[in-house]
Amino acid sequence: MLFRLIVSLDNATYVYQLFADNQLPQQKYKFETIENKTGIAVVNGSQEMSVYAGITKTVGEVEIIHFDKGEQRLKIQAHKSAIISIALNNDGSLIATASQKGQVIRIFKTDNG
After folding, report:
1. d(CA 11, CA 108)
2. CA distance 96 to 98
3. Which among 11, 104, 6, 70 is positioned nearest to 96, based on CA atoms?
4. In a 3-state reduction of DSSP, which class is residue 104?
5. What's the pLDDT score for residue 103?
6. pLDDT, tens digit (0-9, with 9 covering 90-100), for 80-111
7. Could you tell me the pTM of the whole model?
């Protein structure tokens, strides 16, 4: 079984691969982000399909990675203002985003936006 650890800092998010046999974690990705004091990044809870979503360096934009589909990447311009919350459904097929203005929640398919 493959495990991933997501570490979200002020201006970057790191994805580490963890191993069951007590090997040291291996950094797989580093995503530079706009100021991210609240650590906005999420991974779905399904063992069948592993999906990551986090903010990028562009205001209102999210990046989605399907780890189990050859690390397929997709960027979505979800809002004009800063994103304050991201959520994935359990199977990783849908992403919901909310902006700083708090008036709109947008839902996108993670495979094609």
Report:
1. 25
2. 7
3. 104
4. coil
5. 83
6. 999 999 999 999 999 999 998 878 899 999 99
7. 0.85
